[in-house]
Amino acid sequence: MTSSPDRVDSREALASFVRSLHRDHADNAASWENADLGDFLEALAAWIDDAGGWHRNAGRELPVDGDWAFFARALSAAAVYE
């Protein structure tokens, strides 16, 4: 699969991680539970809703200082960016 999301510590690392996801999808889409865009976005929203539970179960705290708006802008822009 892709590199660890825990190693993403910069904008450049996030871009690299997303490219890694893209390559993994291109090479292994059949192994993805949510291989099409609609299913992927729905699963993304569901995970964001449950992120507090995931972090608790993993023994971590949900980051309160994350730039949620940056990620939302990136997702929105990808729909029209060339």
TrEMBL record:
It comes from the Bacteria. InterPro entries: DUF7660. Residues 10-82 form the DUF7660 domain. This is DUF7660 domain-containing protein. It comes from Streptomyces lydicamycinicus.
